[in-house]
Amino acid sequence: MNTLTGYLRQAGTAARFLLLATVVLGLAYPLAVFGVGQLAAPYRANGSIIRDDGGAPAASELIAQAAANGEGVQDPAWFHARPSAVSWDPASSSASNLGPNEPKLLDAVTAARSAVAAAEGVSAADVPADAVTASGSGLDPDISPAYAKLQVARVAAAHGLSAATVQDLVDRNTTGGLEAFLGQPSVNVTALNLDIAAAAPGSAPQQ
């Protein structure tokens, strides 16, 4: 009988702990995190959706929306994001898994550097590192101001805009200071391309 009583006591303790854990971890904690995520505009944790002039959802500023064909080649009319091992497909976020000593990685970087240099009309030495290296997720929407500046002339010519106008849009989409990751300024390509489309009526990046 004492053994049965002990089992019942232990079962009761376990049930109470399960109930407490369910309330705290299954209800209170998620609600608290959600509440904190809704406190400060414009940083509400609702997917960081960018809306067009009509208020319709256009993209998430957290995910690269590269205008590319099925072979992973980005449209020359738009600002290019960093290379992606998954062709910027948010359903299959991944890196290439190639290590720094892998010859295939060096070959890919060298080929990408030559391609970017040819596309932008500059020497290979002027191509910044983020133009030829992918992020861990393959979906990074941010590039360096140096890479954005490299693309200004090409994008401006494609849309009939002045280089000064396009550079101004780049500056408006550049984040720095405390908002920048590790304090390094970055340019959000997703938001920038939407601004380019708004500045050049009749054009829009094809996702």
Would you summarize the structure shown here?
Helices cover 43% and strands 7% of the residues. With 207 residues, the chain is mostly helical.
Keywords:
207 residues; mainly alpha; 3-stranded antiparallel beta sheet; two-stranded antiparallel ribbon; 43% helix
Would you mind describing this structure in some detail?
It is a single chain. The chain has 207 residues and is mainly α. It has two domains: 1-46, no CATH class; 49-199, no CATH class. The chain has helices at residues 2-37, 103-120, 145-159, 163-172, 189-199, and strands spanning 49-51, 57-60, 142-143, 174-175, 186-188. A three-stranded antiparallel sheet has the order 3-5-4. A two-stranded antiparallel ribbon has the order 1-2. Strand 1 and strand 2 form a beta hairpin. Helix 3 crosses helix 4. The longest helix is centred in the first third of the chain and has 36 residues, at 2-37. The termini are far apart. The model has no long low-confidence stretch (mean pLDDT 83).
Please specify the SSE layout and strand pairing:
Layout: H1 2-37, E1 49-51, E2 57-60, H2 103-120, E3 142-143, H3 145-159, H4 163-172, E4 174-175, E5 186-188, H5 189-199
